[in-house]
Amino acid sequence: MPLDSYDRTEPAEHSTPDTEPETEPRARLGLAASLAVHIGVTLLGVAGLVLAFGVGVGSPTDPGPGLWPLVAASLMTAAGMATIVRAALGERVESLRGSARPALGVALAVLFVLLFSFVSVLVALLVVYVLWTRLLGGMAWIPVLCWSLGGTAVMYVLFGVVLGTPFPAPLTAIP
Amino acid sequence: MTDAILHGFAVAVEPANLVAVLAGCLLGIVVGVLPGLGPITTISILIPFTYAMSPATAIILLAGVYAGVMYGGTVTSVLLRLPGEAASVVTAIDGYEMARRGRAGPALGISAIGSFVGATVALVGLTFFAPSLADLALHLGPPEYAALAVLGLLLIAYLGSGSFAKAMVAAGAGLFLSTVGLDPVSGAVRFAGDSLQLVEGFDVVAIVLGLFGIGEVLYNLRPSQGDATLTTRKIGRVFPSTQDLKASRGAIGRGSVLGTLVGLIPGGGGLVSSLVSYGVERRVTKNPGEFGKGAIQGVAGPETANNASSTSAFVPLLSLGIPFNVTVSLLFSVLLVHGITPGPQLVDEHPDVFWGVIASMYIGNVVLLVLSLPLVGVFVQILRLKFSVLAPLIVTVSLFGLYTIDNNTWNVWVAITFGVVGYLMRLWGFPLGPLVLAFILGEILETSLRQSLILSGGGFDIFVSRPFSLAILLIAVAVLAHSVIARLRTRGTRTTTDREPVAHRSGGSDES
């Protein structure tokens, strides 16, 4: 779904009144990978069971702190097994193809936190806006700079001046 | 009653609250139009900033945003066939077709009018129904609360668009996450290791902002497919003609009642109510062939119903103290932070909050009608904003907001982690709503379950020996049985489920 294509103004070409904005299905995982995903999720439930027993389950008359987590983890495990069955019967989920851009987004979010923790809030905002609009937005340099400087200024005023957030970075430009 | 309502209006017109309702509605509409931001993300971004406000002002602001998003989401549905929030998915069918036939104005106009009528009908219901339900709820004990919470979770999973098993996996994960930290009964520390932060448990805002806010941004970063085309920027005459009004009269009436009732059911708000209304309209119309080709009833009914249901979804929160949809559950957690436990006592103990919020909703409704009709042209211009500019703003505002909760980066890291989790869940078809709702209902459920067991001396018969809790549990069993039977029946006919979330930008159908 092209969220960047709002500038288009020409009328729609096709006339089929379908309800889905998507035009072609996304790539899907094969059987083995799909099973692996659902088995992995179920194992998380099993890990929960182990943790619950670790803190002490007790009994219904004398419940330990682990009794309720045990119920939650059992639900997750049982439902997880049902999803494995469904995957084995042919239900397919989306593949990770196309996750490079989301991964870059995560990297930029991490970079942002590190920069505002250890360097400076202003640097963090500016660097992340420039990188995001340039690398993920594919914008030309002039709009990149305009948006980044504008965004940084707005955020600085909002969080630094109006809300007076005490930021951790030693070199923070906010007094 | 009259005194109480008047008191509510006195609270609502206090300057801070009036500003809150105006700002909330306006912000809500803008956000509803913006790509990549649904009501859940927006409300959770705002939550850290409401901690400094009075509880009534905080809820008034957030309820205004919620109502505003419902209005704003319609604009993108009609003009782009991209629902701004999940509940507007249905509007994207006939609303978009109306716009293609040069009737974008009346489509938006009738939505605004229908939304106003629907929300007002639901509000009148809320005003008169919630206090009596609260009186009734005073007689409910821990077994009934436990049963209600179980039923709520089951219905959310059942009414969601995806697979029931996956919804239950998500619910189980949410319940488990809610147990991290102090055991509410014995005070023992669970699963915290050496982490001081984990002893306090996860902050719901960090989880929600991660799953919905950051997860959604990440999901939208994938290379795009398909195409969205803006039909027109020229909206023209917004106010529907007499003929249009006449044609939609019945749809709006039915939508109001349907929406109000469906909104009371756990998981029934938003999308479900608009789907039900669309189905009803298609059945009662004399020209079913018009549906899908720009029938104004197909816009008026669902839009009315979705606003009515999002209003009546406040009834369980304000009377029982149990939130049954994700947005309302966020308001529940805001009240808890302010030291107010929502429940049957709310109306007596905090009448300013109870009646103030209801009165503000009346005011907000009028504000939305007055703002949305003449300003539609302005809101359309917001569509020019690109997602690549908004995305870093959403991420940085979310992370800064989380930092301000306790001036610590712990919640920020939690949110980024849950952002990745939310991305994967979306990719693999695990709904996010049940996880968040289970996380919030988890403590109510655990506490009431264990109190029940203490009351009964460890026997589970307490849940079936009390008529009300037995009735609730029977409904829950019926839901579960129906889901399993339906699954077995359809297994032969369906080999693959190609269920793309319909409203990608707003978190699919979990959002209500």
Automatic annotation (TrEMBL), chain A:
A Pfam family that the UniProt record links to this protein: TctB
Location of region: Disordered: 1-25
Sequence ranges assigned to domain DUF1468 in this UniProt record: 39-168
InterPro entries per record: DUF1468
Keyword match Membrane: yes
Keyword entries, A-Z: Membrane, Transmembrane, Transmembrane helix
Bilayer-spanning residue ranges: 35-55, 67-85, 106-132, 138-163
Keyword Membrane attributed: yes
This protein's name: Tripartite tricarboxylate transporter TctB family protein
Taxonomic classification: Bacteria, Bacillati, Actinomycetota, Actinomycetes, Pseudonocardiales
UniProtKB/TrEMBL annotation, chain B:
Family matches, as InterPro entries: DUF112_TM
Keyword entries, A-Z: Membrane, Transmembrane, Transmembrane helix
Transmembrane segments: 16-37, 49-72, 108-130, 142-160, 167-189, 201-221, 317-341, 353-380, 387-404, 410-428, 467-485
Domain DUF112: 18-437
Entry keyword Membrane: yes
The keyword Acetylation appears for this protein: no
Superkingdom of source: Bacteria
Name of this protein: Tripartite tricarboxylate transporter permease
Organism from which the protein derives: Prauserella cavernicola
